[in-house]
């Protein structure tokens, strides 16, 4: 030991310092066999004194676990924006807290790259984001038998661990708020660019259905619009909105990237927010809402909680501490920036 640098200590050095066998140190580090608490304490003290860092690859080979989990995000179909980054950072922090590493696996919404990921042997489990009602990735993960959880929900999520935004409650709350202020001509803008009536994307479908259910309770006409996720697309959409509904008094936005364009497009038509039209974001981020002039009120996405709980649920499955799949819905929180006002007469 005399000539050995402290940062180059080996498992054998730890065993000698703790007065145990090399095998016992291996069992304690890799958790492959029970080790008496007093023995584990001596081993941990020796590791600390020697500044011993277990080799991650060796640990993986010994335990047959890599302690790496993958976060699947379809970058071609969805923007890698500030809201998404909140998911990633909170998920990575939770993984690290639990002794795991998290990798971002950019993929499509089909199952094409799932086999490559799983058969690489690099990962213990998967967290799936941006979930569709009938999601090929989910079906393939089930077939392969790899542990996974969802941030989102399929059409039939029974038997799957998931955490998701409570879109149904979100829309019901927003619609009730606007109706209490006298609004009847309430439109909604989606962010996929296509027809929201045929979308398979979970957040769009659940928001759409909740909106139509709220409209069905009255004699109001549903006013649904969609555009690409950009400010320019939002601005281009405004004339279409006004042609279809010149008397519109409120807009719900499930498209935060088009929000600034919609607000500026309304202003270009001489329509003030909120003097003539109230605007509110659904599942948006404060950073985006604050950057718009005027700032828009929003129901803030619980991105950080969703990322954390998605990883938490997966690790509970991996470590056998969860006996049944978790199923959680998380509410958005209303943040008032003054873009909602009583309906104009």
TrEMBL record:
Signal peptide: none annotated. The keyword Transferase does not apply. InterPro entries: HTH_LacI, LacI/GalR-like_sensor, Lambda_DNA-bd_dom_sf, Peripla_BP_I. PROSITE patterns: HTH_LACI_1 (PS00356), HTH_LACI_2 (PS50932). Pfam families: LacI, Peripla_BP_3. Residues 9-63 form the HTH lacI-type domain. GO terms for molecular function: DNA-binding transcription factor activity; transcription cis-regulatory region binding. It comes from Mycetocola tolaasinivorans. SUPFAM superfamilies: lambda repressor-like DNA-binding domains, Periplasmic binding protein-like I. Keywords: DNA-binding, Transcription, Transcription regulation. Gene3D superfamilies: 3.40.50.2300, lambda repressor-like DNA-binding domains. This is LacI family transcriptional regulator.
């Amino acid at each position: 030991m005399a000539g050995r640098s402290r940062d180059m200590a080996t498992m054998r050095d730890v065993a000698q310092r703790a007065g145990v066998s090399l095998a016992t140190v291996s069992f304690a580090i890799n958790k492959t066999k029970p080790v008496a608490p007093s023995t584990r304490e001596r081993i941990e003290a020796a590791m600390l004194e020697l500044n011993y860092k277990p080799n991650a690859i060796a640990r993986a080979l010994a335990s047959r676990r890599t302690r790496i989990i993958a976060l699947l995000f379809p970058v071609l179909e969805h923007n890698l924006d500030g809201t998404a980054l909140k998911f990633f950072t909170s998920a990575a922090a939770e993984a690290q807290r639990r002794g795991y590493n998290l990798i971002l696996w950019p993929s499509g919404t089909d199952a094409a790259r799932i086999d490559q990921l799983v058969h690489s042997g690099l990962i213990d489990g998967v967290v799936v984001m941006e979930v569709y009602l009938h999601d090929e990735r989910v079906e393939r993960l089930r077939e392969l038998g790899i542990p996974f959880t969802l941030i989102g929900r399929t059409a039939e999520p029974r038997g799957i661990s998931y955490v998701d935004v409570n879109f149904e409650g979100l829309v019901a709350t927003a619609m009730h708020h606007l109706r209490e202020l006298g609004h009847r001509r309430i439109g909604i803008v989606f962010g996929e660019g296509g027809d929201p009536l045929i979308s398979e994307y979970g957040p769009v479908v659940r928001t759409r259905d909740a909106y139509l259910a709220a409209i069905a309770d009255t004699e109001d006409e549903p006013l649904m619009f969609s555009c690409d996720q950009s400010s320019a697309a939002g601005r281009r959409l405004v004339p279409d909105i006004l042609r279809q509904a010149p008397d519109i008094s409120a807009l719900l936005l499930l498209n935060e990237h088009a929000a600034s364009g919609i607000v500026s497009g309304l202003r270009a038509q001489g329509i003030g927010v909120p003097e003539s039209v109230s605007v509110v974001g659904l599942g948006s981020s404060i950073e985006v809402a604050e950057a718009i002039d005027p700032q828009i009120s929003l129901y803030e996405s619980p991105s950080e909680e969703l990322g954390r709980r998605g990883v938490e649920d997966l690790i509970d499955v991996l470590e056998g501490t969860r006996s049944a799949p978790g199923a959680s819905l998380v509410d958005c929180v209303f943040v008032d920036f003054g873009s909602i006002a009583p309906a104009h007469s």
